[in-house]
What we know:
The complex is a heterotrimer of chains A (about 250), B (about 80) and C (about 220). With about 250 residues, chain A is an all-alpha fold.
Amino acid sequence: MFKWLDPYAKPQRLYAVCGAWQRVLMPMAWLTLLIGVVWGLGFTPADYQQGDSYRIIHIHVPAAIWSMGAYSSMAIAAFIALVWQIKVAQWAIGAIAPIGACFTLIALFTGSFWGKPMWGTWWEWDARLTSELILLFLYVGVIALQNAFADRETGDKAASLLAMVGVVNLPIIHFSVEWWNTLHQGASITKFAKPSIDPSMLWPLLICMLAFALLLAALTCLRLRTAILQHEQHRSWVRDLAEEPTDAKV
Amino acid sequence: MPKFNFASFADFLAMGNYALYVWLSFGLTFVVLFGLWFISNRQQQQFHQQLRVRIAREARVRQHQSQQPSQVQEP
Amino acid sequence: MSIAAVFMATFRRDLRLLARQKSDWLNPLFFFLVVLSLFPLGIGAKPNLLREIAPGIIWIAALLSVLLGAERLFKQDYRDGVLEQLVSARLPLPAYVLAKMAASWCASGLPLIIVSPLLALLLGLSESAFVAVVATLLLGTPLLTLLSALGAALTLSADKGGILLALVILPFYIPLLIFASAAVEQAAFGLPYGAQLAIIAAMLCLALALVPFAVFKALKLNVG
């Protein structure tokens, strides 16, 4: 069924394909992010209750959603590696994990900065932030596990197994943290009062969502290429590349 | 065409008194994202650099060995 | 050898090892009690406060204790080459894995359940809270064991074993911690906690279905 994908499983081919994708996606990603951010910062009306601080939503929500999207992508890559025995899919996990971890960090500190004017404190153990924190721990676990082995291949395989186990746990963790939060709710009402989403506010939010998605894809291509080079460094095609003058920052 | 929300640029920077939180959020986000991009690029360049060093070293070893045929070859 | 034969052989062997090396199950047990005692020492021994945080600290101490005992699960067999033999001999590895996990539960889970009356004493648990503690431990410790076995299998040939195992597995303990401590808390207030127990049971079933397979794969990749 997926025979047409077979050539892409070969590292050398994938290296070239990722290079092409990267050249297109990277500038698109940064441009989209710029447009979304500028639009959201300057060209939408302020929220009725939260004033101008709600603008952080344009970063916080896309980062949070794509932090989970990145983890799912890792798990899908792991699954592909397991079922179809494709090595490059396993290498993708090491490529995606740091990107996902960065998105999670962004979600965490933007969530904190968004909440400070509302709650008065820099941190609250509410459902969304706590879930993101646990997601960060999951990422750290995958990255740490991958780097803990003398043999790189064992590390890749172990990390891919962990990513798959983790993705099963993700909804369970999410659900239990939501439930835990309702249980221990103080007298205060919902912390993240959703700003009344005016349609004009929706556009920059969607554009930023797209931007984060493009950035995830572009950075993955970049990091996957490095991973391919590292794993294939004994091959002649990699050595030939090294002979060439320095690859420009592309 | 959406219109600019703020009366002046000073107002834009002030973000209705939430300047610290808004600009810190957006600023740190860009620092993290650019940092990730920069580090990822540097990792690739470092790989190329190290590989070139290794190839050069292997060439030197081969040259050295071919100049001393009477000595025991390294495995 | 048939699956049942491998299971019984491995299980009996591990139990015999536990009987001989009593530290393998006594250490985690005393660790549990020590950690538990740290809380009143660190936070203050007010009876009301202790009763309030008891559900949480019992479960935190329990999961840390099981985690501590996890590293030894496959290490000895890995070092002795037993694992390699098992993998290459094409013996039913799942049976071996299940037996190891059963024995591990006897070492780290069962002692906690047996010692739980002591907890009622130390933390001033009410009768209903105590029953809930035993119920959650009965359902929860097998889940702890399953997950810790997964951690042990994944980090088997890694350099920094112990802490890495904890780092990898602790996030997976969080849902169990949430529901188990909530169940005991509900019981302390005299409220029904069947729903929380049902959720723990469901998580246990899910783990029983999926984890042995993952452990089996992890062992193969560490040995291969």
